[in-house]
Amino acid sequence: MEKKKLSIPQIIITSVFFLLGILCLLYGITIFLIHSGSKFYMVWFAGSFFFLLLSLMTVFRLFEKIPPAVRIIAVGILCVGLVYLLFTQIMIFSHFKDNTEKELDYLIVLGAQVKESGPSVILQYRLDRAVEYLNANPDTVCIVSGGKGVNEPVSEAEGMKKYLTEHGISSDRILLEDKSTKTTENILYSKELIKDQNSSVGIVTNNFHLYRALRLAKKQISNPIYGISAYSNPVYLPNNMLRESIGVTKDVLKRNMNF
User: What is the enclosing helix (H) or strand (E) of 227?
Assistant: First the structure.
């Protein structure tokens, strides 16, 4: 019996799945090679396996062997997941350009990995944005927030203070919060250093992280809160944005924040 050839739409779908699988694989390798300190790159390898599997299933017509009801349910779940992902991405992107010219009372710089050589690239972007703001607003007090991880030589707060002072910010303007291990704690413990509930507070973090940071802060702090967006490398943005969608979901489920 002659094997049926794939139709043009099936060839296109197979090619798209195969291309997506290869792109996910290459991107996962890219994220792995930068040694980000996180194993989130594994999600790209999982995505590569998923798309390549779909490509093979199309080639060998395995979808046709799946009961129609199961196919409909699977497609429905996938569509709901994609819509939810799009929704969270739009919310995250909505704060990419946040900035304030206001003379804030406090600036909270959220921590990230500190290496033997100094702040990681992602943390350096935050600190450079803080230096820019602090130079323009000499009365603002800066809170550097971050504890010491197992793979860090000093606490993130100490490393951040060192970087700021080396870039001309007086140590008298810098307060250390060196106990926190995650964003919710960054906000909670920094709050203890703010004496007046009417003081204005700016949150400095990378653009992809700012939406969640602001929502967490507004849940925990009654002070007026403003976002100050720092740069992030566009090459790593897909990984960071996807990870943030998961972070947003986790914090909403834990009731740490609202959408």
Answer: strand 225-230
Beta carbons within 8 Å of 199's beta carbon, 6+ residues apart: 105, 106, 223
Whether the model clears a pTM of 0.85, i.e. scores above it, the answer is: yes
Say if CB 160 and CB 142 are below 8 A apart: no
Determine the pLDDT at residue 1: 45
Paired strand residues for 204? 109, 228
Helix (H, G, I), strand (E, B) or coil at 142: strand
Using pLDDT thresholds of 50, 70 and 90, give the confidence band for residue 151: confident
DSSP annotation of 144: E
Strand runs labelled E in 101-213: 106-110, 114-115, 118-119, 141-145, 174-177, 201-206
The average pLDDT across 221-225 equals 93
Q: Scan for tokens 């700016």, then name that residue.
A: 202
* Structure token pair of residue 41: 């790159």
Backbone phi, then psi, for 229, in 5-degree steps?
Answer: -85, 135
Q: Cβ atoms within 10 A of the Cβ of 75, count? A: 10
Gap between the Cα atoms of 225 and 110, Å rounded: 14
Task: Say yes or no to pLDDT of 3 above 60.
Answer: no
Residue 132 has pLDDT above 90, yes or no: yes
Dihedral of CA atoms 91, 211, 31, 119 in degrees, nearest 10, equals: 170
